[in-house]
Amino acid sequence: MAEILLKSLGRVFGERRVFADVDLTVEAGERLLIRGPNGSGKSTLVKIMAGLLEPTEGRVLYRTEGGEKPPEEVRSEIGYLAPDLVLYEELTPMENLDFFARLRGLPTGRANLELLDRVGLKDRAEDPVGTFSTGLKQRAKMAFALQNRPRFLFLDEPGSNLDDLGRDLVRRMVEDHRDPDAVVVIASNDPEEFRYGTRTYELG
Amino acid sequence: MNWARGAAAILAKDLKSELRGRAALNAVVLFAVVTLTAVSYSIGGYGITAEIQASLLWIVLFFAAMAGLSRSFVVEAEKGTQTALRLTATGAQVYLGKFAFNLLLLLVLDAVVLALFQILLPITTADWPLLVLGLLLGSAGLAASSTLIAAIVAQAGVKGALFTVLAFPILVPVLIAGIGATRKALAMDGLQSAGSEIQLLVSYTGIMITMALLLFDHIWKD
Fold first, then answer.
1. Which residues pair with B69 in a beta bridge?
2. Which of A54, A90, A100 sits opposite B20 (nearest CB)?
3. What percent of chain B has pLDDT over 70?
4. What CATH number is attached to the domain comprising A90?
5. pLDDT (mean) for A5-19
6. pLDDT for B157 beyond 70
7. pLDDT higher than threshold 80 for residue B23
8. Chain B within 8 Å of A88 (Cβ-Cβ)?
């Protein structure tokens, strides 16, 4: 059982209201596509759902086998890929993944090298992330998002800056999450990514 | 022992990043060198008392620390890496990891400043165990509170100036006790005479770490 419940969610930045009264349940096995014009709050909603930002009104709850929990209590089951996610540029992707693996209590070394191989970065495993192109950085971030085999996967503009091979990786990433017990949330304005969703929520 | 494992991982990562970039170390050491050189030139050949020497030592330590202690958090905010850290680490792991890093940085600074003092404003007589103890405990107090303040400042727009302004009133007890313990060490008053300063530094550090562990999730979250 894996569901995300959004209850009367609202967010205000200063004087500006981004959205209000978002009531939504994302059920297990669903892939929710969030669409909307620029500035409609897609990224803000994804951040709130992932527990990275506090809502001004309402709340987010995760319904799992252990009952209803706030996002911070299911952190180990969350995967997140978004433009605001940045890895340590002075470290190599391997060092980055090993560092996050230690924090997450996951194995280091070989498992992370296999992950880099999956996103096509095995040959660049020992180069600092700062030397990567934007597209290669996006691939390194994909490896970070998949490292903990998340049950709740959040993808904000996942195909941005990626070439065809990279976009194919995103497609495989979403398809690998066709698990009936997993939830995928995609925020995008890219028509190519609309097909990933099984349900659409329109903002703005 | 998740918190210990996470804190150790953050400390190791910060040390690795620091060794590659040396952003904080360069800032604190260069500040200490410039300030001490300026002070030694202005004092010239005048003999200075233990009181003045202790005050000068702590002024240099305080301002050099202010130049570098906020770096570990500010860099995470400026580069945007705090999102990944928020997704993978608890507040306690982040605080303790950054506290350990700042403490190590301060201990390096203590060693550099003491060595420079010996060259520019020589300490002729001192109760060295008490002097080192006062510096160790004072550094722990400085690191405990400035790590917490740095996390708050990292969320704000005007980071540099705000850090020193916010830190100073909170660090006054550390400065008073640190200067007191150092003065007594330089005057060879003995360990027992500095009992109240040592107690204050230990209590202050304990309280700041406890408070930080209780509050840090809220500071770190949003």
1. none
2. A90
3. 97
4. 3.40.50.300
5. 93
6. no
7. no
8. yes
Q: A109 lies in which domain range?
A: 3-202
User: Which A-chain residues 132-191 have CB contacts (< 8 A) with chain B?
Assistant: 144
Query: Residue A32, CB half-sphere, CA atoms under 13 Å: how many?
Result: 23
The mean pLDDT value for A100-107 works out to: 94
pTM passes above 0.95: no
Model pLDDT, residue B1:
65
Rounded CA gap, A196 and A185, in Å? 10
Contacts of A95 in chain B (CB under 8 A): 16
Is residue B17 less than 8 Å (CB to CB) from chain A? Answer: yes
Arithmetic mean of pLDDT, B61-78: 85
State whether B93 and A54 contact (CB < 8 Å).
no
Q: Please indicate if any CB of chain B lies within 8 Å of the CB of A131.
A: no
Task: Show the tokens assigned to A102.
Answer: 């230690």
Average of pLDDT values for A117-122?
A: 92
* Structural domains of chain A, count: 1
* Tokens standing for residue A104: 């997450």
Do A24 and A63 touch, CB atoms closer than 8 A?
Answer: no
Q: Is the CB of A86 less than 8 angstroms away from the CB of B88?
A: no
Q: Please give the residue of chain B at the shortest CA–CA distance from A145.
A: B84
CA distance A177 to A149: 9
Chain A CB within 8 Å of residue B21 CB: yes
Helical residues (DSSP H) of B22-49, grouped into ranges: 23-43
